[in-house]
Amino acid sequence: MSTLSPTQQHALAEHVWLHFSQMAKFQRPDANPRILVRGEGSHVWDQDGNEYIDALAGLFTVNAGYGRTEIVEAMAAQLHQIGYVSPFSFPSVPVIDLAAKLATIAPTGAGSRSFFVNSGSEAVETALKMAKSYHVRRGEPQRTKVIARRVAYHGTTMGALSVNGVTPYRTGFGPLVPGARHVPPPYRYRCASCMLQSACSNKCANEFEAMIEFEDPSTVAAVIMEPVQNSGGALVSPPDYLRRVREICDHYGVVMILDEVINGFGRVGGWFGSSELGAQPDIITVAKAITNGYAPLGAAIAAKHIADTFLGDEADMFMHGSTFGGHVASAAAALANIRIIEREGLHERARVVGPQIMQSLRETIGSHPNVGDIRGMGMFIAIELVRDKATRESLAGEENLMYWLSDQLVQRGVLCRSDDRMEPVIQIAPPLNMPQEDIDQVVQTIGEVVHVLGRKLGSTPQQHSVTRRPVSPAAVTTLEIAA
Ligand SMILES: Cc1ncc(COP(=O)(O)O)c(C=O)c1O
User: Fold this and answer.
1) This prediction's pTM
2) Which CATH homologous superfamily contains domain 34-63+347-481?
3) In the chain, where are the structural domains located?
4) From the CB of 153, is ligand 1 less than 6 Å away?
5) pLDDT band with cut points at 50, 70 and 90 for residue 84
6) CA–CA gap between residue 287 and residue 371 (Å, rounded)
7) Which residues contact 360 (CB under 8 A, 6 or more apart)?
8) Of the candidates 238, 337, 343, 344, which has an alpha carbon nearest to the alpha carbon of residue 293?
9) Which is the closest atom of ligand 1 to the Cα of 226?
């Protein structure tokens, strides 16, 4: 039972508008919303006192875990000094310090310059405008097209939406920003070229070149992609893929933008996906985990050769900005958060613990008939579910599967995400400091839910016994799945 007062229930039903959510469900008399009110470490509690393990770090955001008083204190200290500084007119101390810190860790190099905004969508928007504006300054104003990848999610504002590769998200909002093109993502499990080969052919990287040639290279401004693509389920760029894209961009004079909104700040191991995968982008976009979720902040971080084209007189400036871009409290939160990640080595932990989680998942459910693929990088993991493991027959179209999966997980006290923007996947992206016992619990719960799914689909017998080795090399447990 929800402990919301009748007035609050009415307000939720009539006045609140959640993102990507059907609000009608909150108007039903039996609506029982979960209102999260507290977080500590990897755990969150709802208003009724129910406890959950958060295996999605909020929304790929709370990488350093909940309850970070140090971040709150850094924000408070800053706000006691001054609560607002206009980014149109004045640099602020936390923004200066944050930009300096980012230049030491960003894959765009030591000369990086950060343009702060409020969200990932705005960061993408900014990067796209920056790339186009860069070409204008270099005498190539006809370079306006941007090549992105199918199924990729880059945000909801009009520019970011236009490069978005998720068709239903774009539908109904036209006309979009012209010039967006899409190529297939690297998706080894179902790749038409190399799914059955022993090695990846990297053909998907060459798709960028084919598209640039087809469109006329002199019209292409930028490419944009995530080093590890979230939408579709942790699609890791194969070895050499990003190096090949870099080569193509250099050859055709195209700006390479890598969207690190999820990958950044330790999620895939190391500070950024670009650096982990050996890529040197011209611009990266960041947001989400930069403040550990304590305050909104995004940035487009440009390599020196990009940023320097905007130096000169007043007419050369980047004609772009927003009132709250680089808010002092957000910048202070980011600095404190980066200190925590660095001090506790959370980005490095992701490199080690992520593969252990994947191994544990493989041992627990790897041979299950409905588990097609377990993939990812660092602590950014997806389990692709199939109707038939042998034929890789898709489960797409199975009615209400995503809702059912999320519900099964949450009923067992685990929050993670079920996603079917491509094939159905369960996504796991826990706080990078999630303790071992919670990781074991998440793996066990996912194992249980996959076995319940198997019985629902008729793929496994009604009674099934799973031997599960926890991530920790300690005890081996056997869990009985009830019919
Ligand atoms: C890769 C990527 N880029 C951009 C965005 C947009 O970020 P925001 O929701 O902060 O606008 C997201 C959001 O999930 C994302 O995953």
Assistant:
1) 0.95
2) Aspartate Aminotransferase, domain 1 (3.90.1150.10)
3) 34-63+347-481, 69-344
4) yes
5) very high
6) 32
7) 439, 440, 443, 468, 469, 470, 471
8) 337
9) 1
pLDDT of residue 463: 55
Specify the residue with its C-alpha closest to ligand 1, atom 14. 155
CB 49 within 8 A of CB 70: no
Judge whether 325 and 125 are in contact, CB under 8 Å: no
pLDDT tens digit sequence for 179-196: 999 999 999 999 988 888
- Tell me which amino acid residue 308 is: D
pLDDT, tens digit, for every residue of 438-463?
999 999 999 999 999 999 999 987 65
Give dist(CA 243, CA 141) in Å, integer.
27
Residue scoring higher pLDDT (334 or 473):
334
Q: How remote is the CA of residue 285 from the centroid of ligand 1, in Å? A: 9
Q: Is any atom of ligand 1 closer than 6 Å to the C-beta of 116?
A: no
Q: Write the class of the CATH domain 69-344.
A: alpha beta
CA distances from 104 to 303, 338, 462 (A): 12, 12, 55
